[in-house]
# Entry
Amino acid sequence: MNVATRAFRAMGTDVSLVGPHGHRAFDRAAEAVRGAFEHEELRCSRFRADSELSLVNARAGTWVVVSNELALIVSLALEGARRTEGRFDPTVLPTVVAAGYDRDFDDVLAGARAALGPPVPCGRWGDVEIRGRRLRLPAGVGLDLGGIAKGWTVDLGAEAAVRGGLPWALVNAGGDLRLCGDAPEGGLEVGVEDPEDPSTQLARLRLESGAVATSSVTRRAWGPDLHHLIDPSTGRPAVGPVLQATVWRPTCAEAEVAAKDVLLTGGAALERSAAVLVLRDGDVLSSLEAA
Amino acid sequence: MTERSPRARATRRELRAWAWVAGGLALVAPWAAIAEPPQEARARGDRPVVVVRKITRRVIVTHPAEPAGVRYVYVNGPSSGGSSSGSVVAAGGSSSGGAPPPATSTGGS
# Structure
């Protein structure tokens, strides 16, 4: 199948729009996707002092009025925390900073990070209060909306691309992707990268609708057992049997939450999730229907 | 008349001496090689570096957890979809065989 792709960099990752080749609305759709990422990065980045999220984190302990969009993203994150019994935790920010991920990841890799701190307990999501557009974080608590904000923006971008005139559109941000519109017959093939050798693919998925997100402990890693996926039950980077979890959900924001949940839960999560797990021992577990 | 020319044959004694020297060298040479300090690897530019890496993956399929808008594609070998006991063995990096590249990929971020 002939597809067109437009790629750019946003939210510290590679973003791409995939759509039908040669469609006259493709350029306009690509601009809409780029615009969505620029807006949401300014709203949700924890690495920008001028982002709306940074302003909220700086005023933890007091009520602040936030935009409708940020209120919605925080509500989605809190709902995800409730549904996963805290395995997805948006209040993990002090913990991930203590683990060494205290600035943009390119700078972390370059070694420009503060010394590691001791593990910091998380799990304060139940104390976050939100009433309409009014939001109050407990004192000393910070929100990290990185994954769910990216998933939310992928959803926004894919929907905007279809509204802009494409019959179908797939937006992929660092492996978290959403397909909108009338998918081409037979769906779109999505390669699943091997967590131990990302230059190879260990499987393919045929996506007909919805979203796929992948969480991996081998990405955004800056040392042995030092990576961005914090296990809220220990306050340390996760060290379970799962290296990578790829999960399907109707929306990318939901898939982001589910991927983290499944990665921490392990094989038992396959009873309730459409997912592909790659284990440390080499096995690949799948609960997807075969094509 | 008894003077030896420079190209005359060596005496038995000389031959025996040379044989002892050669035998001694043959005995010592392997130990000398072992005692040599390790040498630096050649620079990458001298010769292509070939990294051989093979990851064996065993795919275990359980019953589909829920209706989903995605399916698992087996390009190599038969599928055991829907079987809780089936398995397909695939070597990482070769499961896609000679199929055209996928539209996009996922691998964590």
